[in-house]
């Protein structure tokens, strides 16, 4: 019997017979606003596991090291054991969400260049935005790790922008997490899915109808399951061509 090692908002992590391999179970639970809003999205766990598995394979095919091994079940993923760095790395291409609230930028403004931000992965503190100096003060990562993470984040952004563009989807912004393996190599971890990305239908101009991500849950826009399913179908179609 696999031992439960950790349960988060969207996933449960289990041990396996191999100490270097973990099993991730994706849940249907949905949370927003640092878990102040809770609910469930039918089939989300399976959809996100499939999307994340395919996108991790796209990353690996483009030279990005990840923790992904395989997908033994529709709502599960086997991953390499890593020590997660307590950082949420957000890459923004278009102004939306907290960036608009904190700066007054209008939603939908295309940024002159991708913006990479760091947030402290700490629920009790509300996952605050970090300056570089605060990041180093808290010893959350080394300078070389931060340099490597920024480089990887921008590479991942370029890959995802191209990929989603081929899917007819605009990549607005997204959150990444990284971890270190036993050799201290930095690996892309966690997931890439409609839970962690802002995705807009490229052909839709209506600010509500274009939303294909967790903002449909956050903002009570309805049709959450169908939006996630639409992303899955487009990702599967595109990766079938590439992989």
Automatic annotation (TrEMBL):
Belongs to the SAICAR synthetase family. The keyword Transport does not apply. Residues 4-234 form the SAICAR synthetase/ADE2 N-terminal domain. InterPro entries: SAICAR_synt/ADE2_N (IPR028923), SAICAR_synt_PurC (IPR033934), SAICAR_synth (IPR001636), SAICAR_synthetase (IPR050089), SAICAR_synthetase_CS (IPR018236). It comes from the Bacteria. Pathway: Purine metabolism; IMP biosynthesis via de novo pathway; 5-amino-1-(5-phospho-D-ribosyl)imidazole-4-carboxamide from 5-amino-1-(5-phospho-D-ribosyl)imidazole-4-carboxylate: step 1/2. The gene is purC. PANTHER family: MULTIFUNCTIONAL PROTEIN ADE2, SI:DKEY-6E2.2. GO terms for biological process: 'de novo' IMP biosynthetic process; cobalamin biosynthetic process. SUPFAM superfamilies: SAICAR synthase-like (SSF56104). This is Phosphoribosylaminoimidazole-succinocarboxamide synthase. Its EC number is 6.3.2.6.
